[in-house]
Here is the input.
Amino acid sequence: MDERILILILLGACALAWAARYARKRQELSGAVRQNPKRAPLVFLWQAVFILLPVAVMAAFGFWAILHQRRVVEQEAQQRATEIIQTLPDDFGRLSASSLTQYDAYKGGWFSFLEWGVAGWPGSKTRLQYLGDTNELSIISNSVTTLRAAFPDWKDGAPPLVQFLFDSNGLPQNMDVFPPSPPPWLLTLSADQYQAWTSLISADRPGQTVSNLLPFVREFRDTHPPTTATAVADFFRLRAEMRDKSSMIAMQSFLDFAREQEGALSESGVPLTSLALAEALRRANECGPNEKLWELLRTETMRAGILAPGLLDQAAGLVRRNAPLSESVRAMQILLADRQAQRQLAQALAQTGYSPKVLTTNLWVSALGRRWFCIVQPDTIRSGTIVSNKSIWMTNTYPEVRCYPKSLVAQAFTNALAETKIALPQYFGVSFELETEPIPLPPPWDGTSSETLAAGRFHMSLPAIMLSNPGNGPRTETPFEDMPGHPEFTLRIQLTDRPLLYARQRQLQTIFGSLIALSALSAFVGFIAAYRSFQRQKELSDLKTNFVSSVSHELRAPIASVRLMAENLESGKIAGAPKQNEYFRFIVQECRRLSSLIENVLDFSRIEQGRKQYAFEQTDLAALTRITVKLMEPYAAEKGVWLKLEPLPESVEASVDGQALQQALVNLIDNAVKHSPKGETVTAGITSQDGTIKLFVADHGPGIPRGEQEKIFERFYRLGSELRRETQGVGIGLSVVKHIVAAHNGRVMVQSDPGHGSRFTIELPPGK
Ligand code: ADP
Here is the structure.
C-alpha cells in the first residue's frame, strides 16, 4: 500500500468525523431526541457509528501499518544485502585470491631458507650466504610469525600449507616411490642369473668376510645381469670390504658409492643411495659427519624415502652436542614433514579420480585430518632458479598443485572482506561457498546457519605467485585468469539475527500499538460516557415531561374546586354562615396548598438556575417547628391524620434561613401526611445534642424500599408507576429539601422499613 491509499483512508476518516458532527448538529436543531423519544436510540446508534467507525478504521489501519512495517524492514534488509554484494569491488575475487596465496610466498621464502640455509653444512657457502644476510633473516622471522598467526593450530613441523609439482607419475616431483616396491630388474633376471642372485644374498650374511663373499659376487656378475643389479652386488661387496676399514675411509667410500649409484634400486625397491647413506651415517658415529654426508642427507630428506625419518633420527643423535648441526637436522625434519604432506595430498588427489594428465584446476580433498582446497595449475608455468648467480628461466610442463586448508580459505575471505571496508549491520553475517564447499567465516562474519538474503558469484583470479621461489632471484607473476577451471566462489549475505533486525521496528510497534490501543480505548470510554449521559438526559427528559403534566394536574384540581366554591358563594346558593365559613376555610386551605406548591416550583426553578439565595439569621428552631406543625394541622386533619409534636426544648437557637427551613419542614410533613393512612399519627420534633440539631418527621405510612431511599431525593423522582400513583405530588419536594439542607451544611436522611413507616431527619451541624 502506498501513500495515496493512506491519504484516502485519512480523508475518509475525516469525512466520517465531519458527517458525525453534522448529524449531531441537525439532530440538536430538529430536537430529534426530545420530539421523538422512540427514535432516540436509533439516532444514538448512528451517532455511535459515526463516532466509533473512524476510530475503528484508524486503529485497524494503524495495526495494519505496524505489521506492514515488518515487511518493509525485511525488504530494506534484503535491499541492503543486495547493495553490499553490488558494492563489492570488481576485483574482489583477485583480492581474496591474493589474500590466500600471499601465504605461499611466506612459506616459500622460509622453506628455501631452511633447505639451502639452515639444513646446509655449517661451513658451506650457501648456508653462510643465507645466514649472514640480516635482511633475509628478518624477512624469514616475519614470515614465520605471519604463518603462526595464520595457523593457530600449527604447533610443530611444517605449516599446513602444501605446494608441489607433479611428476609424470602423478607424484610430487623428485620423490621416492612410496611404499617401495620390488625393482623391475628383479623380474627380468634369467634362471641362471636368479640362481646366482639367490646364492649371493644367502652368502651376504652379517659378519661375512670379503674373501668369502667375492666368489658369489663374481659368479653373479658373470651371468651378465642388468647394470642396476650389478650395482646391488657391488654394494654387498663394498659393505663386506669396508667392515675392516677405518670409519673415515668406510664413510667416504659409502658416500662415493651413493653418489655414483643414484637412481639404482635394491632388491626391496629401496634406493641404493639410501642404503649407502645409512651405512655412511652408521660409520660417522666413530669419525663424525662431513659436508658430503650432510648434502646427501638433505637430498634424502627432500626425496622423502622410506628410510629418511630413521636416518634423520640417527643424524640427530649423532650431532646432539653440535648446535648448528642439530638445528640443521631440525630443519630437515620440517622439510621432510612437508614432503610427506605433499605425498599424502597427492594420494588424496589421486583418490578423487583426478589424473594429472586431465588438467582440472581445483578441487576439495580430505587429507591429514583436514579439508584442503587444491588449485591445480596446468602447464606452461614458468619456474625460476638460480645457476651461478644468473637467472635462468625454464618452461615447466608439469602441473603445479597448491593446497590450502579450509581455515586459511576462510581467513583469506575474511581478510578480503575487511579490506573492502564494508560496514555490515550486526544482524548480517557472511558465508562463502567455494566450489560447492561452504566456508564458515569466523565471528563476526559467520552466517552459515542462517537464511540467505543475497548472493554473488566471483572468480578467484589469482595474481600468480611464482611456481618455485627463486630466493634472491627475480620474481615473476603469471596471470591465472585464462585458466580453464578458474575457481569460482559464491558469497552470501545472511540474516543472522532476525530479532535484532526487528528491534527498532518492535520498539516503534510497541509505542504506536499502545497509542492506538489507548486512543481506541479512550474513544470507547468516551462512547460509554456519552451513552450514559444520553440515557440520563433521556430519563430527565421523561421526568420533566411527567413533571409538567403533574404540575398541571396538581394546579387544575384545587383551582377548579376554589372556582366552584367561590361561584357558589357569589350566586348566594350557599346559605347560612356556618356553611359559608366552611367554604371560606376550604378556599383558604386550597389556596395555601397552591401557594405551597407554587413556592416549591419557584424554589426549584431558582435552585436549578442557581439563583436561590438564603438569608441566615438567628432563629429559634423550636418555635419554628411549633409554628410549622400548627400550620400543617388543618391539612392533616383534612386527611384524617393526627399531627403530633414531640415534646420540644424551650428554645433551639441557630443561624439559619428560617423561611427556607420551614419550607423544608412543610415538605416533609406534607409527604408524611400524604402517605399516612387515615387515623395514623405523624410525629414531628427537634433534638439538640452537642450542638448538632436534628429536626425529624416520622410517619406510619408504607415506607420506602431500601433501593429507592437514595433516589427519592433526586429531582422529579417519584415512587411507583405514573398511572398507579395514589398520592399527589410532582417529585420535587425532597430535592428542594435536600438543597436547602445542603445550603446549611447539613444533611437530610431517611430511615425506613417498608410497611413500618418512614423517618426523615434534617441534621444541622453545630454552629448553625
Ligand atoms: P412528591 O411531590 O411526589 O411528594 P417528593 O420529592 O416530595 O415528591 O417525594 C418523592 C417521592 O418520595 C414520593 O413520590 C414518594 O413516593 C416518596 N416519599 C416521600 N416521602 C415519603 C414518606 N413519608 N413515605 C413514603 N414515601 C415517601
In short: DSSP finds 21 helices and 17 strands in the chain. Residues 87-169+354-501 form one domain. The radius of gyration is 61 Å.
